[in-house]
Design goal:
Blueprint (H helix, E strand, L loop, with lengths): L4 E4 L11 E4 L2 H8 L9 E6 L3 E7 L4 E5 L4 H13 L3 E3 L12 H9 L6 H8 L1 H4 L8 H10 L7 E5 L6 H9 L17 E7 L2 E7 L9 H15 L3 E6 L14 E4 L12 E2 L8 H12 L2 H5 L21
Parallel strand pairs: 1-6, 7-9, 7-10, 10-11, 11-12
Antiparallel strand pairs: 1-2, 2-5, 3-4, 4-5, 8-9
């Protein structure tokens, strides 16, 4: 049975008439609202809970358009009445997608332009059929959905380590072009340097933070303070070191430890190591970072993905026409 939902199809600004689309098991829905359900293609005048006289137009077996007066107060009262009746109010421009079969497909079409990689595009296109499966939503489904949303909003990856151990070289190697200055002089990176990187189908905001060190130079001190702020907002915090330097002191435990300049030797305790200047170990770094943000098991799961919070936290099951 399809979960009952309602969506305002017209603008939220005042107007003569508004359109609220009701979706789900219409017979049960209208019984709850004490309404007489019109036949498909027919229109009826009805009184909705004493709030307003409305026109009811039945679009098909699962969709009913409710057309009250377009005043903001009327819309607000109707939404309250619908919510009280157990109907989930959907947000977003569902009315822009008349070709959509249901709210899941409309939401997918709405979100589709946010897909910046083929991996994200394919996963979104698979969702309408997966939401049609008869599955019971779990806490793990919700956690997985939150991780997968990183495919739509690029997570922030922050590298921190002692100055000039190869962080900028790693960024340049992953970006495929020079985006950071590389030097052996401490303090070269005066500010956080970043780039948008495609890591195996996952787009990330990659930041090479200024090396953490004491500095008398006020400009460099400001850069280090800015790095601290970036670290606090990191979705994935990566500590870096090489064989000759220790791991940095960080405000929290790092999510990963990456050993740099592995051609000189391996940093003890590293989760993964690379020699970015020689293009060695880059694929390993990409794989480990992506797995930490969006595990392969999440990508391979065929269960529904709640890719937008506009969808209710339970799959919507379509009914056969």
């Amino acid at each position: 049975m399809k979960t009952p939902t309602a969506r305002l199809l017209t603008a939220e600004s005042p107007g003569a008439v508004a359109i609220i689309e009701l979706s789900g098991h219409l017979e049960a829905l209208c019984k709850t609202l004490d309404l007489s359900l019109p036949q498909v293609g027919q229109i009826k005048l009805a009184n909705l809970s004493g709030v307003d006289e409305v026109l009811l137009a039945r679009v098909d077996t699962t969709r009913l358009h409710c057309m009250p007066h377009g005043g903001p107060q009327v819309i607000k009262l109707l939404e309250q009445r619908l919510t009280h009746a157990g109907i989930t109010m959907m947000r977003g421009r569902g009315g822009d997608w008349p070709e959509a079969v249901d709210v899941v497909e409309a939401a997918m079409l709405e979100v589709l332009p946010q897909a910046k990689t083929l991996l994200t595009l394919e996963l979104l296109l698979a969702q309408p059929s997966r939401w049609n499966a008869n599955v019971e939503w779990t806490d793990e489904d919700e956690k997985r959905s939150m991780r997968l949303r990183r495919l739509l909003k690029a997570p922030r990856v922050v590298l921190v380590g002692k100055p000039n151990i190869g962080k900028s070289t790693l960024l340049n190697a992953l970006a495929g072009r020079h985006r950071a200055v590389v030097s052996d002089m401490p303090g070269t990176t005066r500010d956080a340097v970043g780039a948008m990187l495609n890591l195996g189908g996952l787009l990330v905001q990659w930041f090479d933070a200024a090396g953490l060190r004491s500095a008398d130079d006020p400009v460099e001190s400001a850069a280090i303070a800015a790095s601290q702020e970036i670290i606090e907002k990191a979705d994935l915090l990566i500590a870096t070191a090489d064989i000759g330097t220790g791991w940095p002191s960080l405000p929290r435990q790092p999510d990963l430890r990456v050993g740099l300049r592995s051609d000189l030797g391996f940093a003890h305790g590293a989760d993964v190591s690379c020699a970015a200047g020689l293009k060695e170990g880059l694929e390993d770094v990409v794989s480990v970072v992506r797995e930490a943000l969006v595990p392969e098991a999440d990508l391979e799961s065929e269960r529904p993905w709640r890719f937008t919070t506009q969808l209710p936290p339970t799959p919507l099951h379509r009914e056969n026409s």
